[in-house]
Amino acid sequence: MSQEKVDRYKKEKANREKIMRRERWITRLEVTAFVVVLATLIGWFSVAVYQNSVAEKKANRTTETTTMNVTDIQNYLSETNTSSDSSADDTSDSTAE
Prior knowledge:
By secondary structure, this protein is mainly α.
C-alpha cells in the first residue's frame, strides 16, 4: 500500500507542470465563458430597457393641435377681391369713354 502511494506521488511530481498548465487553461476557459455569458446578458438587458423606454416615450407623446377660426380673414379677403374687381371695372369703363 505504501509503495502505491510513493509511485503515485512520483507520477504526480513528474507531470506536475503539465497538470498545472491544464488546470490554468481550464480556469481561464471557465472565466472567459463566464465573462462572455455575463456580457451577453448585460447587453440584452440594456437593449431591452432602451427599447422599452423608447416605446414608453412614444406612447406618452401627446400631440397638441391648435384650431383657428379664419372666417373673418376669408370674409375680408373676399370683400377686398370683390371691391378691387369692381373698382377695376369702373376704371376700365372710364378710360374707354
